[in-house]
Amino acid sequence: MQPIRLAAVRLSSVDLRQTEFLDDGERRLAGTFTSQVRRERFLAGRIALRRHAAEIAGVDPTDLQADYVCRECTRDDHVHGMPRYQAGSRKVTLLASLSRAEDWCLLAASTDGRLLGIGVDLESGGAAGFEGFGQVALSAREQEELQKVEPALRAGFQTRLWTRKEAVLKAIGRGLAVVDPALVDVAGSVPLLPDHVAGTGGRPGWVVDAVDPGSVGLPLSFTAAVALVVAPRS
User: Fold this and answer.
1) Which of 15, 142, 172, 222 measures 20 to 30 Å from 180, CA to CA?
2) 177 or 5, higher pLDDT
3) How far is it, in rounded angstroms, from Cα 70 to Cα 170?
4) Which H helix or E strand runs over 226?
C-alpha cells in the first residue's frame, strides 16, 4: 500500500471545544444540521480529521486550511466534498478521507504527491446485508461472485463489497447520490468504472484493500475499506 496513515477515533471522545481548529466555513456548515447528534458527530469528525492530518504534516491543526473539492456541484466553499488541506506557509497539500459509522470514524491522510485520491468507508455490522441488495447495488460480475458465497456468509460479503464501492467513489470524488452503485464493479483487485464515472484521465493505478478493524482500534464487528488512486507512471 502507498504511504498513507489510517486511524480510528471514537466520536464521543472528541473535545468539541476544539472547533477553534476549524475554518469559519466548516463551522457554518455544521450549523446547517438540524439534528444535534448529527451536528456534533460532524464537528467531531472534522476535528479528528484535522488533528490527524496536522500530525502527518508536522504542523499545528490551526495551521491547516481546508481546501475541499466537490465534483458534484458548483459551490466553491472549500469545506465540502473531497477532504483536502493546505499546510502552513509551505502550502503542502494533504489528501484525506473520513467515514463515520455509529460512534466511530475512520480517518486517512497523506502528503504523497503520487496519490490523486484517497477514500475510506466504514460500516457497522452487516449494514448491506439486506435482501434485494444485489439487485439494486451490484454489477453482473459481483452478483455472480455473490452466488458462489455460502448463504450464511452473504450478508458479510455484501457489506465488504459496499465498503469497497464507497471507498472507490470517495477516492475519485463522486457520490452515490448521482452515481448508480451497480456501475462500480469492485469484484476484482482493480475497480471497473465507466469513463463518465471515473473521470480521472490517463490510466491511474488503483489500490483497494480491506482494513482490519482491530489494526486501527475499531470494534471487530465493523467492516472497512480504503481505496487509493495512484498517478500513472510517466
Assistant:
1) 222
2) 5
3) 10
4) strand 222-230
Please list, residue by residue across 12-48, b when 16 or more beta carbons sit within 10 angstroms of its beta carbon and e when fewer do.
Answer: eebeeebeebbbeebeebbeeeeeeeebbbbbbbbbb
- 120 has a pLDDT exceeding 90: yes
| Cβ partners under 8 Å of residue 39, min gap 6 | 30, 31, 33
Question: How many of the other CB atoms lie within 10 Å of CB of 188?
Answer: 12
Taking the C-alpha atoms of residue 151 and residue 135, their distance in angstroms, rounded to an integer, is 16
How does pLDDT run across 21-39, given as a tens digit for each residue? 999 999 999 999 999 999 9
Position 8: which residue type? Answer: A
For the record, the C-alpha cell of 26 comes out as: 466548516
Q: Is the pTM of this model over 0.85?
A: yes
Cα 57 from Cα 61, distance rounded (Å): 9
